[in-house]
């Protein structure tokens, strides 16, 4: 049994692309940091019943955000190509937003300046809607992907 598990792990390490591994690594790190923070603060012991599930809410929002931020770092050329032409330093903004998303995700789960980071993430997603998604949808109204992106980013902003 042990050799099967070892060979499966080795095969997965070869087959899964590095950018996916990094995204999942940051996702996992944010989840672990969030769970550790919940227990260290004593929130888990103080919560009763279903209220314990509510404690996991920030983790459910922040962990995918950290993975998304990692994607900005591992797939920076593709992300930079989506920055509108009138904004200078495309690569800088792609990397900067990625680092900010990762920092914000850890901030949200540890509650260190969580309100500020959540507000700035919401503002960032709203700016994405104004600068990239809504103009794309207006240019190609029949393309459902532009509509989906616009509405998704808008809901992230509201979240």
Question: Can you describe what's shown?
Answer:
The chain has 159 residues and is an all-alpha fold. Helices cover 82% and strands 0% of the residues. The protein has nine helices and no strands. The protein has helices spanning 2-15, 18-41, 43-46, 51-54, 57-74, 76-80, 90-110, 114-139, 144-158. Helix 8 (114-139) runs antiparallel to helix 9 (144-158). The longest helix is centred in the last third of the chain and has 26 residues, at 114-139. The termini are far apart. The model has no long low-confidence stretch (mean pLDDT 86).
Task: For the structure shown, list the relevant keywords.
159 residues
% residues in beta strands = under 5%
- Radius of gyration, taken over Cα atoms and rounded to an integer in Å: 18 Å
Could you estimate the helical fraction of the residues in percent?
A: over 70%
Unreliable stretches, pLDDT < 50, 5 or more residues?
Answer: none
Tally of separate helices: 9
Distance between the termini: 44 Å
String of helices and strands: HHHHHHHHH
Give the helix/strand class. Answer: mainly alpha
* Gross geometry: globular
Mean pLDDT: 86
Number of DSSP E strands: 0
Biggest beta sheet attributes:
none
């Amino acid at each position: 049994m042990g050799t099967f598990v070892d060979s499966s792990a080795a095969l997965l390490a070869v087959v899964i692309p590095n950018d996916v591994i990094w995204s999942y690594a940051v996702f996992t790190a944010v989840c672990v940091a969030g769970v550790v923070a919940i227990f260290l603060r004593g929130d888990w012991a103080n919560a009763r019943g279903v209220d314990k599930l509510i404690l996991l809410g920030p983790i459910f929002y922040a962990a995918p955000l950290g993975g998304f931020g990692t994607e900005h770092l591992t797939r920076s050329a593709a992300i930079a190509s989506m920055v509108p032409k009138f904004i200078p330093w495309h690569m800088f903004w792609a990397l900067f937003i990625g680092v900010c998303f990762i920092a914000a995700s850890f901030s949200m789960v540890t509650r260190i300046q969580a309100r500020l980071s959540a507000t700035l993430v919401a503002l960032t997603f709203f700016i994405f809607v104004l600068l990239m998604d809504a103009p794309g949808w207006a240019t190609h109204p029949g393309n459902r992907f532009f509509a989906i992106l616009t509405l998704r980013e808008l809901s992230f902003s509201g979240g």
